[in-house]
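Duplicate of earlier report; Homoserine dehydrogenase input re-posted below.
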Amino acid sequence: MLGLNRKLQRLENEGSYIKVGLIGAGQMGRGMISQIEGMKGMRVVITADLQVDNIKNAYTHAGIEAANVITTDVKEEAASAVKHNQVVATTDMKLVTSLDEVDVVVDATGVPNIGAEIAWDSILNRKHIVMLNVEADVTVGPLLKKMADASGVVYTGSAGDEPGAIMELYDFADAMGFEIVALGKGKNNPLNLEANPATAEEEALSKGSSPKMLASFQDGTKTMVEMNAVANATGFLPDKPGMHGFSGSVSELPGLFLEEEKGGKVKNKKVVDFVNGIAPGVFAIIASDKDEVNAEMKYLKMGDGPNYVLYRPYHLTSLETPLSIAKAYFDHEPTIAPYYGLQGETVTVAKKDLEEGEYLDNIGGFTVYGKLLKASEAKEMNALPLGLIDQNVQLKRSIKKGETITYDDIIQTKETTIWKLRAIQDKDFS
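Output:
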């Protein structure tokens, strides 16, 4: 079987290319446009963002002449531009999902409800959908995957995102017949459950990133969501609510993920977790019950067993997304998807004391953070999934800091797409 690079080269030699539609021209989207423009056999032919200047700047920084960037919200004009090897800037995300000339859609918005809308519309329009929106995926991904399968298209998370990078290690070890003991990632920032856009602002500005996005990393929400996606893809579960969050080096990982009775730190096998001290890497802890395999692993300097670590010290975020686009297009396979349905649930926890009548804000905001539980635990608590929160969710009672917010605690003042899809999913998968 040809590698993706050779398949892309062959497509270009044939005078064709994969036509990508992108929604979201923020940091991830801009990097992806430039990366793809330097590749063979692929191009971002249309991008949607509320700020058209963001799109134009992204295309010009990628080396596309300004005269070849056509700004329009009209479908016929967009189609004509693509046919003439021009690219399109639009404010209408539905133009991206419905345009016949688009083969694969990428959601790079990071907003759960918008991501759910994008995925739903893409699937209805028989287009492959790549999600750079793990928050939407862990909330309604099982339903979206089922719909994509029924429609003959691919629903997938992205290579380069930590869940996708972990899944590649999992697939590698699983194909070789190793026992996979644990899956995890390094955490870049010390855990600060009180982090918010105000406390994160100075560091975010120095890094050229969004204070809200940085706060969502610092308060642990992004880590919980990312490992939730891995849980749904593999059936692995958190060993305890919120995971352990050990500290350690790469060489210490095999011992940490031994069971307690064997001198380790976990109660179970097949767990997801995060570790301070190994960022930005991802890992899989593997083992074998075969003497010859263990002898070979020791010879290869993989350690003394019984556990060994597969460690990848990098993940290139949206710069790797083109690999998922190509895999969906050529091989009709996802990089990562919720094969096991809803195994984990990232629930909503009060970041501070909240008052009756108060509205919740968004992920990385001032009011709440996420905590990963087993889906069965969350269901028993009637806990509110974090991906459902937005400014339309109002508290019916006061909530203490650190308390898990339930469906019974809130009033939903406006029904959004992600709420509708979650209701269908809960009914369909119950």
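The mean pLDDT is 97.

Merging into the original ticket.
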